[in-house]
Amino acid sequence: MRARLMRLFDTPFLKRVGWHARRMSEKVEGGFFRSLLLGLVVILALAAVIVWVGETDGSIGDLGASFYWSMTTVMGQGDASYVSGPVGWVMGWVLGLFGVAIVATITGVFVGFVIEFLLKEGQGMGASGYRDHIVVCGWNTTARDLVAELKSDAYKGHVVLLHNSDSNPAGDGVYFVRGDGTNEADLERAGIRLARSAIICPADASDEADMHSILTVLAIESMAPAVRTVVEVNNPAHVSHFHRAEVDELLVTSKLVAHLLARSAIYPGLSELVTDIVSGGEGSELYRVVLPDECVGKSIDEVSALLRARHAATLLAISRNGSTYTNPQPDFQLMIDDTLVVVAESLGTLHPLEDATAFE
Fold first, then answer.
1. Distance (Å, whole) CA 23 – CA 8
2. How would CATH label the architecture of 283-359?
3. Closest Cα partner for 319 from 249, 229, 260, 217?
4. What DSSP string runs through 133-192?
5. In DSSP terms, which residues pair with 344 in a beta bridge?
6. Residue 219: which of 207, 231, 208 has the closest Cα?
7. Structure confidence at residue 359 (pLDDT)
8. Which of 201, 203, 213, 337 has the most neighbouring CB atoms within 10 Å?
């Protein structure tokens, strides 16, 4: 039962509500509500005692009934027949008027909270409340395409966009946090400590954008070193700086495109083939998976045949201890901690590699 309650209160929506409630409580003087509550208790008790003395026989049971009458009267649900004299009538009017003020105050606070919640959420000023999600820092054409890819891919988790703009450029299905990837408070609102990975995209093709990406990586690594960071790099000369910032993986888009264009000029149709593989074309989704138990100790040729026969998957590369082996020798044998990069229509019974530490 306790575990169910914990899961209930661990939902992203309730986390967002709690975050906005704490934010509003910091803006409101706590003494105001304490004074309001104290005043309410005093007036209820005073009215109950006066009615008890002036309208009842004075028994202990009548005191409890008088207090109950005063509380229900404040809420507009009191029994008017409980009192029958001037003292009770006056107390009823006082409590009725006081109840209007109390209800108006509570309603105002509640309406203010709802407006705060709706406006701030729409402006990207809320907190995601997600767990095991992907945070995209920055927005450009690459970010736009990768968000579309994540929406259409087998990935069923949440995506949070951290970007400094007036509205959400990613559209529906992506939680928007307005802010800067170098700001710790904004990263907290994006839920970076509980994220599975962060993708950093430069705002433009300038060197300054790369420097901002490096600062973003440093901020994430200092706050959540277990979160996997993946960066798009503009200038190949900055790669060493990103490595010093301890980025987990990077992609120099200009270098990749240049190499692919050069190879396509020599071997026609190569760019279309590679694009189809990496973009999840029909029957050619790219996966990184755990080595199946039945493949341990087998040669590369045996594993390739087994993957084709049992999983309809084509083996592209093997990762071992941080190194990648593409097209190894025929006598290359697979070990228990190896991971595979395969092309397949779907995962099927293969297990995806989800632990970011396995890439180290």
1. 22
2. 2-Layer Sandwich (3.30)
3. 249
4. -EEEES-SHHHHHHHHHHHHSS--S-EEEEE-SSS-TT-TTSEEEES-TT-HHHHHHTTG
5. 285, 313
6. 231
7. 38
8. 213
Q: Are 29 and 38 in contact (CB under 8 A)?
A: no
CA 64 to each of CA 76, 188, 311: distance values in angstroms, whole numbers, following the listed order: 18, 50, 74
| pLDDT at 18 (0 to 100) | 72
Mean pLDDT per 10-residue run, the chain (360 residues)? 52 74 63 71 86 84 86 78 83 78 73 72 82 94 88 79 92 91 94 94 93 96 95 94 94 84 85 73 76 90 90 88 86 90 81 53
Q: How many residues does the chain have?
A: 360
Architecture of domain 2-122 in this structure: Orthogonal Bundle (1.10)
Q: Extract the tokens encoding 319.
A: 């990762």
The answer, as to whether pTM is greater than 0.70, is no
Q: How many CB atoms lie within 10 A of CB 214?
A: 20
Q: Which fold has domain 134-256?
A: Rossmann fold (3.40.50)
What does the domain layout of the chain look like in residue ranges?
Answer: 2-122, 134-256, 283-359
